[in-house]
Amino acid sequence: MSLAFTTEKQLAISAVRRACSLTSSVFNKLVKNETLTKGDKSPVTVADYSAQAIIGSILQRAFPQDPIVGEEDAAELRSESGATIRDRIVSLTNEALVGDLGLGDIAEWGIGPGSEQTPGQILDAIDRGNYEGGRTGRMWTVDPIDGTKGFLRGEQYAVCLALLVDAEVQVGVLGCPNLPVDPSNPDGDKGCLFVAVRGQGAQQMKLSGADPTPLSMPPYAPSTFNFLESVEAAHSSHSTNDKISKLMGITRPPIRMDSQAKYACLARGDGGAYMRMPTGVGYREKIWDHAAGSLIVEESGGIVTDSRGQQLDFGLGRTLGENHGVIACIKDAHAKLLQAVQQAVADEASVQSKA
Ligand SMILES: Nc1ncnc2c1ncn2[C@@H]1O[C@H](COP(=O)(O)O)[C@@H](OP(=O)(O)O)[C@H]1O
Ligand SMILES: [Mg+2]
Ligand SMILES: [Mg+2]
Ligand SMILES: [Mg+2]
């Protein structure tokens, strides 16, 4: 019997790997005017756009019917002021598309020597990410660089791609170019790829595709349990985590890290829970920030819910809807953690109502 989603898995690995080699090489050459500030004040670089163009272009060739929910769009690049950055993105994307075929790559996906695209095709490949999402059918979701702030600091970031079918994540791939391959040797080799297919487990491999190893989360051990959380306090509440941590009796400090690399590290046994509690500014979490990572944690034996213990709903459109936070955790610690979370949320609400 052939396994489900074999082609999709291989394609997602190939696309993410190609995008990762681009982001790593751009980091070393990035110049100041290659970072723009978006309407929401967040940064976006030529690497974000080019990585989305690469993934969009490969998906267009392999699965032309599948819509894409992607973080970036090409509106700014189509404007007059976007001309310089557009030219750079076109040449970076083409450089990456024509790179030699590697393990598992298929030339029919529009990669390898001779696969250049026109500027118009590249902008269209980025804009394929404009799909609004929804509850039914197949769709991909892509975050070309998750943790752009981490990328700019030379710290953690992830290239993220997931396939959803009827609002359920079926395939998830995370490429983490700056993540140590062996967590016990942080100064050793860097560059990991994480992949999961629903019902088939999760694996870590090197970005080159070598050394695939199955992932499985360790059992709950109170003495080593701690939280993974964002570096950016604006993205998730450090203070709420601190209260939850005290209620749980956790003594180890949190591990701060940008991007969905947190999901990946949790899946391979770091910390015990990835905590993303809302900061109260009405921000809605985006599906591309959670789809791939949540499946990798679930397929490694973990559990992912919101702060009420409910499953994340990927069928609401481009966002996860009203923000009740995200809690990804070792399965047998989840009930205890949820109790502490709800206590902390209730305490915060009562302090606010008295203020
Ligand atoms: N106020 C907010 N609350 C929660 N997440 C936010 C936020 N503002 C931006 N983000 C998201 O936080 C992501 C980074 O998460 P983390 O802090 O875990 O690294 C960003 O992804 P991008 O970097 O892809 O834009 C962005 O989507
Ligand atoms: Mg962004
Ligand atoms: Mg993101
Ligand atoms: Mg991003």
From TrEMBL:
The superkingdom listed in its UniProt entry is Eukaryota
Q: Which UniProt keywords apply?
A: Hydrolase, Magnesium, Metal-binding
Q: Which cofactor does it need?
A: Mg(2+)
Q: Which PROSITE patterns match?
A: IMP_1, IMP_2
What are the TM regions of this chain, as residue ranges?
none
Which E.C. number(s) belong to this protein?
3.1.3.7
**Would you tell me the protein name for this molecule?**
3'(2'),5'-bisphosphate nucleotidase
Q: What's the source species for this entry? A: Collybiopsis luxurians FD-317 M1
- Which lineage ranks, top first, belong to the organism behind this chain? Eukaryota, Fungi, Dikarya, Basidiomycota, Agaricomycotina
